Amino acid sequence: MTDRAEADKRPFYDSEPIEAIRLKHPGRIILAAVLVIIVGLFLFDAFTTRGGPKGYNWPEVAKYVFDVRVIQAVGYTLLLTVYSMIIAIVLGVLLAVMRLSPNPVVKAVAWVYLWLFRGTPVYVQLVFWGLVGTIYQQITIGSFSLNVQDLLPAFALAVIGLALNESAYMAEIVRAGLLSVDKGQDEAATALGLGWWHTMTRVVLPQAMRVIIPPTGNEVISMLKTTSLVVAVPFSLELYTRTRDISAVTYKPIPMLIVASIWYLAVTSILMVGQYYLERHFARGIGQRPDVMKPTVETAAVGVITAEEAKLAAIRNSETHPTYTENDGRTGIVPPEGGRGEGWR
């Protein structure tokens, strides 16, 4: 009983932790075991029974995975992705601001742009950009004439087609991020005398990035894979088309598809790691709770005292502290030096 009484007197923050018993989930264990067996059987079959020339042909994969032509194709794929996303992000921010503009004409222009580029397939748009040279063969300004096919090579047309399509999706992502910031932030920045540019760059956008970064990272990864469609322009130096051309010579399409998949997975994995750190950087301070502070004074349950105990407590207080009697007969404690009106010092 003594140990229990002492335990009851302990503060709540010094009490022993609760011993929670973890629930058992046999169904999960069985499902995990089945999945591991299926994956193991697939890998064993892929690397043994079907790993020869009539199957996945892993020696051919190892032969071409670091081939010079494949490495160059990876470089072109990365250039297409980076250039297209940079242009798409800039246009997306501009279109998002236009969509939020109070000017009905500006808002309508942005809406029509989004309707057009989001409503048609990206492959159709790339084919159209590939045929621009047949529609506009020359651009003449006074005595100055430009040949469109010389001015816009296939690589530039591929970047334009990918960027314009992606900017329509980036506009909605940026607009959602801007709308997620409380309007009071904008009003507070205006009250502090900040202009529109400083309000947007220093107050609104830093808070909106927490919402913008995750879908933007997904769009970058999606753009990397969408570059395989630029053959519609036609541009044939990116990764998928280059490996397909090699397989047309070797008559071994499956190993070259595996080579392209390996490089896509490698680049995508690097992008996912970068996206994770960006999300963690812009999510600092969100959803975090401060540590519980321990009380400075020991707390305990408040008991109920009787009238006699209250009188005894009053007598003890009167013996400890000098008292005085008011004109109406009430008794009060004499305040410290400085008088009753000046309080404690």
TrEMBL record:
The keyword Transmembrane applies. It is found in: Cell membrane. It comes from the Bacteria. Residues 74-275 form the ABC transmembrane type-1 domain. The keyword Ion transport does not apply. It holds the Pfam family BPD_transp_1. SUPFAM superfamilies: MetI-like. Keywords: Amino-acid transport, Cell membrane, Membrane, Transmembrane, Transmembrane helix, Transport. Residues 318-345 are annotated as: Disordered. It is a multi-pass membrane protein. The chain crosses the membrane at residues 29-48, 73-97, 109-131, 151-171, 257-278. Belongs to the binding-protein-dependent transport system permease family. This is Amino acid ABC transporter permease. The lineage of its organism: Bacteria, Bacillati, Actinomycetota, Actinomycetes, Micrococcales.
